[in-house]
Amino acid sequence: MKRLDYRSPGFEAHLAALEETSLFDPAIEARTRDIIEAVRARGDDALIATTARFDGWQAANATAFRVTDAELRDAGNAVSAEFKRAAKFALRNIEFFNRRGLRSGWSARNPQGATVGEKYDPLQRVGIYVPGGTAPLVSSSLMTVALARVAGCPERVVCTPARDGKVNPALLFGLKLSGATEIYKLGGSQAVAAMAFGTPTIRRVAKVFGPGNAYVVAAKRLLFGHVGVDLLPGPSELLVIADDSAEAPLIAADMLAQAEHGSGHERVFLVTTSEKVEAAVRAEIEKQLASLSRSDLCRKVLANTAAVIVARSLAQAAEIANRIAPEHLELHCKGARKLLPKLTTAGAIFIGRWSPTVAGDFVAGPSHELPTGGAGRIFPGLTVDQFQRRTSVVEYNAAALRKSVAAIGEFAKAEGLDAHGRSATIRFER
Questions:
Q1: Less packed terminus of the chain by CB within 10 Å, N or C?
Q2: Residue 371, in any domain of the structure
């Protein structure tokens, strides 16, 4: 892992380099743009071709992309009873949390007596991308599709990549359990383009949700406007803030858990005020790597996109965390809750030794779809109200408009829009 020390020359420049967003890779963007244009121009034929090229299986025709009821039944039979219980356990927590995040309409009288308010309606047809490449992210099915169901979206369309034309049974079980109404064996930026533009096989959606690799994130960014998008969640990130009270085995385990996703773009950071903790964490990482099945993937991340940052104080550590804007932020320090007000850009914050990021990944309740690559400075994590559409509602009576007409006229005069002013005054000229 790289090492940065606040006392070292060039610290600020090295820290600024870590802040750089990973969301804009020109080469990935160019390749993604080509795929998007192919899907727009050739529809299902492009989906068949790109699936053969990138996912390694040849669909006989576009109807082969749709997961059948028989496949869903077979998946349910293939999954263990223990996993079914675990999935239902997580689903209860996800529903519990997200029912409380739904927004409700309201109505009130403004100072002039007009009735104003808001109403919220579920999006009617939403598209959800669920990763299924090197690891079938069963938890992502619950953390996205279940929110759409809680919000009341009637059509919940899922795209997820397949291997040899088959989707992992546990993932299919999770998608059915969480409420997917259509499931397609499609991955990558071509899946996002299909949901955005529509094809003869897949009707277009109003908004696309879900995490993915760099190509999926690039597609969501390039297609914004053609379709709504939720946020830009790419490869996993973790930043740990630790003082001399921290326990190195726990920190090492948590860093390795996020490094093992395997895309090579994951980022893990330790920001510590203790060089003793730094040394202990480095030793523990080496010790724990020996027993991990994906140790090669972890080592790649640790070598290329991981860093230890030595900070002068917890206050400086918080400043560093805000600049990096990590997806996940763990606090392993005394007085962690007192640090919370200073932390303003993380996707999710986990407090103390008993709150590993994996609890949020799988079962805690808030969606684990979170902003990465510095996008936390702009975006929050996925919430259930993002599946709702807001509409303002305005109703004036004669008395309320009469009290407002002079102000309307002044705005119309200032902006040189006399028809605007007349549209209000004409109501009192009859």
A1: C
A2: no
Question: 214-223 and 188-197 are packed helices; what angle lies between their axes, rounded to 10 degrees?
Answer: 20
- Distance between CA atoms of 190 and 186, rounded to whole angstroms? 7
- CA-to-CA dists, residue 271 to 229, 312, 314, 358, 388, angstroms: 32, 10, 9, 19, 38
**H-helix or E-strand spanning residue 2:** strand 2-5
Letter for the amino acid at 181? T
Range of the domain at 406: 396-428
SS3 labels along 363-400:
CCCCCCCCCCCCHHHCCCCCCHHHHEEEEEEEECCHHH
118: three-class secondary structure by DSSP: strand
End residue of a domain, out of 205, 231, 257: 231
Of the residues 261, 265, 328, 332, which is catalytic?
A: 328
pTM, two decimal places? 0.91
369 is catalytic: no
Whether residue 119 contacts residue 190, with contact meaning beta carbons closer than 8 Å, is answered with no
In a domain, 384, yes or no: no
Residue 183 placed within a domain: yes
Q: Find the catalytic residue in 237, 327, 330, 369.
A: 327
- Tell me the per-residue pLDDT of 129-165, one tens digit each, with 9 for 90 and over: 999 866 778 999 999 999 999 999 999 999 999 988 9
Q: Is 227 found in the same domain as 247? A: no
Q: Give DSSP secondary structure letters for 410-429.
A: HHHHHHT-HHHHHHHHGGG-
pLDDT tens figures, 14-68: 999 988 877 788 999 999 999 999 999 999 999 999 999 999 999 999 999 999 9
Alpha-carbon distance of 235 to 266, in angstroms, equals 5
Distance CA 151, CA 6 (A): 46
Measured distance CA(316)–CA(320) in Å, rounded: 6
Task: Tell me the C-alpha distance between 201 and 257, whole Å.
Answer: 38
* Helix, strand counts (H, E) of the chain: 17, 14
Q: Which of 213, 231, 249 is the last residue of a domain?
A: 231
Condensed to tens digits (0 to 9), the pLDDT of residues 382-419 reads 999 999 999 999 999 999 999 999 999 999 999 999 99
Q: Compute the distance between CA of residue 153 and CA of residue 176 in angstroms, rounded to an integer.
A: 15
14 is catalytic: no
